[in-house]
Amino acid sequence: MVESQVVIVGGGPAGLAAGIEVARAGGRVTVIDENKKPGGQLFKQIHKFFGSKEHLAGVRGYDIGKKLLEETEELGVNVILDAPVYGVFEDNTVVYAKDGVQNKIRGEKIILATGATENSLAFPGSDLPGVMGAGAAQTMINVNRVLPGKRVLMVGSGNVGLIVSYQLMQAGAEVVGLVEAGPNVSGYGVHASKIRRGGVPVYTSHTVTRAMGEGEVEKVEICEVDSSYQPIPGKEKVLEVDTICLAVGLTPMSELAWTLGCDFTHIPSFGGHVPKHNEDMEASLNGIYVAGDISGVEEASSAMEEGRLAGISASEALGLYTSEEAAKLKGEVWKRLNTLRDGEFGEKRRLSKAEQINRSRRSHNE
């Protein structure tokens, strides 16, 4: 059986960052990803990142992705692509398929950086062609250069809904409206301002009640909702669209952690059930680490920092760093993470992701 000091499942921002840190420490590391190209969400993100210089502010997502790939090549990270992983076992054996053949690789340490999947929304007609996730639409326009539709309704006003709406407009689509069930837009004001300046109507306190069409989406009915999010009779509105994009949240892809037997907790603000982990990103099972959206949905900058934490921690556990060296490196990463997690008005969140999860673990044990 092939062996590697560290095996990373997932070649997105968190996985690549983790691999770079292990290789930088002098470790042998293998990254396995089911896609034909590494980089994950970064290569769909044509907008510039926010934050500070150390968070690569002003750099577009795909350029950050290119930089990560260059580092993995320079450091000799072994990347296996087009290889879906369908099992991780207690002896740290990772089983994956490549070219129709089952393969196995064992790692002394395992880092799960599997990301998240888009949530769906059920309504009459939601199975019609033309209803898709906002991430799927973003892949079509920014990666495959295919316009998913000419008249688009966006459902959800978080950052994904706002950013993809603007990028659809840049690609030549007309965004006929943005629907948000809550009373306010939930994404950053800078993103909301862009689509408002483009003349996109924003329907807060509204939801989709049905999609209509013969074999594909032709119209959509939206309706105002009350404070209990129930449709108000007589408040319906019909819009002519050929595409409905759903930006209604993400759920961590945690199946491998479940099957391994990792302990979980439920934190709605992080996407639902997430593996419990400590500040080193180590899960409840020794030698199993999590990083990125599997540990709680945030954004790409945080995912990369968590990947770095997991990579440094795994390297320390392997003896590639002394505890003093690792503490210094992890301290620098945590400083950047805490800056990223500052509140909207600069007021730091009271509890970090790991602290919230550990608090849940303590209350559960009590």
UniProtKB/TrEMBL annotation:
The UniProt entry, under Gene3D superfamilies, shows: FAD/NAD(P)-binding domain (3.50.50.60)
What GO molecular function terms would the record report? oxidoreductase activity
Q: Which residues form the FAD/NAD(P)-binding domain?
A: 5-307
Keyword annotations for this protein, in alphabetical order, are:
Oxidoreductase
Where do the record's region annotations for Disordered lie?
345-366
Q: Which Pfam families match?
A: Pyr_redox_2 (PF07992)
Q: Which residues form the signal peptide?
A: none
Task: Output this protein's name.
Answer: Pyridine nucleotide-disulfide oxidoreductase
